[in-house]
Specification:
Largest sheet: 5 strands, mixed
Domain HTH lysR-type: 1-58
Mean pLDDT: 90
Shape: rod-shaped
CATH architecture of the largest domain: 3-Layer(aba) Sandwich
CATH topology of the largest domain: D-Maltodextrin-Binding Protein, domain 2
Number of helices: 12
Number of strands: 12
InterPro entries: LysR-type_TF, LysR_HTH_N, LysR_subst-bd, WH-like_DNA-bd_sf, WH_DNA-bd_sf, YidZ_PBP2
Strand content: 15-25%
Low-confidence stretches: none
Radius of gyration: 32 Å
Keywords: DNA-binding, Transcription, Transcription regulation
Number of domains: 3
Structural class: alpha/beta
CATH class of the largest domain: Alpha Beta
Family: Belongs to the LysR transcriptional regulatory family.
Strand order of the largest sheet: 4-3-5-12-6
Pfam families: HTH_1, LysR_substrate
Amino acid sequence: MDLNLLAVFMMLWDTRSVTRASDRLALTQPAVSHALRRLRDATGDELFVNAKGGLVPTSRSEALIGPVREALEKIYGALRDEETFVPSLARREFNIAAGDLVEFSFIPELVEHIRQQAPGIVVRLGPVPEEGLAYQRLESGDLDAVISGQPVKEMGIHDETLAQIDLLTLVWKRENLSKPRFPLALYLKRPHVVIRLPDRQGSIVDQTLAQRGLQRQIGAVVQNFMAMPMVAARTGFICNVPSRMAGTFAELFELSVHEPPIAFDTSPLFMSWHRRFDADPAHAWFLDQIRFVVSVA
């Protein structure tokens, strides 16, 4: 059924007059009369009969008005986006795909921050899928956001630079290095524990050293950031970790924190989401919480 007919039906009920209904709907009287005929054909009932005081609804009309009014109010409310999101009352789960950098650096603060405002919301973290699959999962709503060093460059995806990640250098505290900047000679002599990279371009550290004709020694290759300071604490190896992790790792593993001997370029951290959820107030609120936690971390 044409939903416009239901709007005419409701206006006829309220005004009990074809003339007044046409005025309020900004339609001609013949148009309203034609709509009434279509309604009668669709329902198999007169719906309204003429009387001295105007149109009088039939019993069938009386049975229809409640459900019709409720249905139209829901439709109009949805179109006006009247839905409100109250974090403290919400019961919902949000899914993020991110690597261990995000998991160690931001997720503890994000969970704590959200717990204070919205105790009924659960944050679920999973690994970053391959690019094509990441797009599909964002589009379907299976993922609310992907936070990664690479944007999800697909139609309908928003990519936002969330932060710039810089590196600090950690080594045994018992080395008693007093200067903030790590000495270059020791940096090149001592083996490093590094994280395995998914591509073959090499890390920003190795690229920067190579530009200066320098090369560091690799003593171990691990799969995540957490393993790096653990290996460094046992072996005396050097490790370079994102600055947001450095203080925590240094405290946990008796390491000292230093600026690298050479200034390395920062690396962008992107947040990606699908634009089809931009009108969802809960989704928008969740992304804002991520932005806030990253900005103050």
